Amino acid sequence: MSTRMRLLMLAALLLLCAATSLMAGAHWLSPVDIWHAVWMPSATNVEDLLIRTTRISRTVLAITVGASLAVAGGILQTLTHNPLASPGILGINAGALFVVVLIATFGGFGISWSPYAGAFLGAAVAAAIVWWLAMHRATSASPLRLILAGAALAALFSAFTQALLVIDQQGLDAALFWLAGSVSGRPLDTAWPLVVIAAIGLLLSAPLLRDLNVLSAGDTVAASVGVRLRRLQALAIGAIVLLAGASVALAGNIVFIGLIVPHIARRLLAADLRVWLPGAALLGAILTLGADIAARLLIQPGEIPIGVMTALIGAPLFIILVRRQRNAHV
Amino acid sequence: MPMSDTRAIRFGSWSRQFAGTPWRRALAVFVLAGLVGIMGLVIGAVKLSPLALLDAMAHPDSQAGLIALQLRLPRLLLALLCGGTLAVSGWIFQQVMRNALASPDTLGVTSGASAAAVAYLSYLAADWGTTGLPLAAMGGALAVIAVVYALAWRSGTTPLRLILMGIGMAALCSAITTFILVSSPLTTTLSAYVWLTGSVYGANWVEVRQLALWCAGLAVLLVPLVRFALLAPLDDALAVGLGVRVQRTRALLTLVATLLAGVAIAWGGAMAFVGLVAPHIARQVTRAPGVAQLLTSAALGATIVMLADLVGRTLFLPLDLPAGIFVAAIGTPFFLALLLREAR
C-alpha cells in the first residue's frame, strides 16, 4: 500500500472516530440525530442540545489536542535528534500547567482568560529553557543529558504546582480533574480562541516540514545544504509553544501522545518527515478521540479523565514498541 | 590522582586500599549533613540556641527538651533516613543500569509504590487504619519492578530495556493513581495528595524505629553486594570474564535497591527525586567510583531532605509544607548547574 493510501486511510479513520465520538456516550445517539442537530437544530430538542453543547465541543477539542501534541512531539524529537523528547518529558507541559495553576490560585486577577494566557507563558518559559539547554555545549552533544535536564525541569515545575495545590486546598478539587487531563465541561463558545491558536501552530509548522526533514539528517548536514538553522529552530520552537500551550490550556495534562505517536507514525508511514508528521497529526487525533470515547463509556455514569485513558492506551503501546525493537542496543 | 594520596589499611590478612581525595570529600559532605542536622534541631517556630539545645538534651522533660527530642529529632531522623535510603537506592540503580537516568522514579518503583499506597489510603485505610500503608507501598514497588523485569527479559535483560519498560510502567501506575485520586472523596484525596508530595510531618519515634530497623537490615544485605555494584558499569562480557554472574547480581542488586526505595517511600512518601539527584551530585563531588561515593550520596540525600523539611516547616510559617516540594526546588538548580558544568 502506498503511503498516500495509508494517509488517506488514516484520514478516513479519523472521520469515523469523530462520527463515533458524536454518537457515543451515556446516551447513545443515531446518525440521524446528528444530521438533524447539525443542519436543522431546534432549541427544544434534547438530542440537538446534547450534541451542540457537549458532544461537538468534546470532539473538536480532542482532535485539536491530539494533533497538536503529536506534532509538537514530532518536531521536538526532530529538533533535538532525540527519540525520547516530547513536550511532557522535557517539562514544557509541566511549565504551562504550573503557570495556569499559579494564576488560577490568585483568582486569575479578575480576568477570565488570564489562566489560558498563562499556559502560553509557562510553555514559552519552559521551551526557552529547554532550547537554551539543547543549544548548550554540555547538553547538545549528549541526548541523554538533555532528557535528564528536561526531566529535572519537569520535576521542578510539578513540585511548584503541588506546592500551590497543597497550600490552596480548595483549589485542589477543582484543579485535580483538569490536571489529570480532560476535554469535558469546556464548551466551544469559550474555548474557540485556543482551538484557533492551535490551528495557527499547526499551519506555522507546515512550511517548516521541508527544512525539518533535512534536519533529521543532522544539524551539520542541514546547515551545509543551506538550511538556516537558527531561524528554523526559532520558528519550530514558536510552533511548539503555541501547540503545547494550547493543548494544556484546553485539556490539562495529557500524557504519552507527544512521545508515542511520532514513533508509530514513522513506523506506519515512512521515514520522510513530510509524510510522517502530517500522519502523526492524524494519528494523534485518532488516539485522543479513541481515548475520550473509552473514557466516556468505561465507567458509567462516571467518567475517566482522558489523560488517564491516554496513559492506559499509550503505555502498553510504548512497551510493545520497545519489546519489538530487535536493535542490539535495546 | 597522585599515588601518594592512597593509603592501605591492614588487619592481619585483611587489607584495603583507600584513595585519599574521595574520602576527604566524603567527610566534608558528612560534616555538611551534620551542620544541616543541627540547624534542623535549632531552627523552628521556637528557636533554640546551640547551648539551649544541649540543655534540652540533658533535660528531656523541659519544654525545650520536648520540642527538641519529641518533635524535631524524630522528624529530622525520618528525613535523614528517607533521604539517605533513596539516594543509596538511586546510586545502585545508576550503577547497575549504567545510566544516569536510572532512579526509583524512572524505573517505575516510585509510581508503583504510590499507586499501591493511594489505593490503600482510599479503599482500605477506613477499615484497617494506616498501619498497613508501608507494606502496601513496598508491595507496590516490588510488584512493579517484577513486571518491569519480566517485560524487559529476553534471555537476559539489558539496562536500557529495563529503563524504557520502567518509563512505560511508571506512566501506567501514575495514571492509576490519578484515577483513584479523581474518583475518591475530597478528604482522602487531600491526605493522599500530601502523601504523594512526600512529607515527614508528624513523625514519631515508633516510625523512626521501624524505618531504622528496615534500613539496618537492608544495609547488612547490601554489604556483600557493594563490590558487584562497583563492577556493574563494566561491559557484560568483561564482567563475566572477571567471574561475575551478571544476570544474578543484576537481579539481586535491583531487588535491594527496590526494597530500599520502597521503605523510604513507605514512610516518607513519594519524594524520590532525591534518588536521581543525590547520586549525580555525589559523582561530581567524589569523581572516582567507590564506597566513598556511595556514602557521599547517602549523606547528600539525607542533607537534601533534611534541608527541604527545614525550609518547608520554617519559611512559610505558620504553614507546614511537605518536604517533597522543596526536594525538587533545592535539588533541581544544583542538578542543572552540575549537568552543564560536566560538559568537558
TrEMBL record, chain A:
Taxonomy, superkingdom: Bacteria
Location within or outside the cell: Cell membrane
Signal peptide residues on this chain, from the entry's feature table: 1-24
Main location: membrane
Coiled coil: none
Alphabetized UniProt keyword annotations: Cell membrane, Membrane, Signal, Transmembrane, Transmembrane helix, Transport
Membrane topology: Multi-pass membrane protein
A Pfam family annotated for this UniProt entry: FecCD
InterPro entries (UniProt xref): ABC_BtuC-like (IPR037294), ABC_transptr_permease_BtuC (IPR000522)
Gene3D superfamilies cross-referenced by the UniProt entry: ABC transporter involved in vitamin B12 uptake, BtuC (1.10.3470.10)
KW Methyltransferase (keyword) present: no
Transmembrane segments: 56-76, 88-110, 116-134, 146-167, 235-261, 273-298, 304-322
Protein family according to the UniProt entry: Belongs to the binding-protein-dependent transport system permease family. FecCD subfamily.
PANTHER family linked to this entry: FE(3+) DICITRATE TRANSPORT SYSTEM PERMEASE PROTEIN FECC-RELATED, FERRIC ENTEROBACTIN TRANSPORT SYSTEM PERMEASE PROTEIN
Protein name, entry field: Transport system permease protein
Organism: Salinisphaera dokdonensis CL-ES53
UniProtKB/TrEMBL annotation, chain B:
CDD domains: TM_ABC_iron-siderophores_like
Ligase keyword on record: no
Keyword DNA repair among record annotations: no
InterPro entries linked to this entry: ABC_BtuC-like, ABC_transptr_permease_BtuC
UniProt entry keywords in alphabetical sequence: Cell membrane, Membrane, Transmembrane, Transmembrane helix, Transport
Superkingdom of this protein's organism: Bacteria
Family membership noted in the UniProt record: Belongs to the binding-protein-dependent transport system permease family. FecCD subfamily.
Official protein name in the record: Transport system permease protein
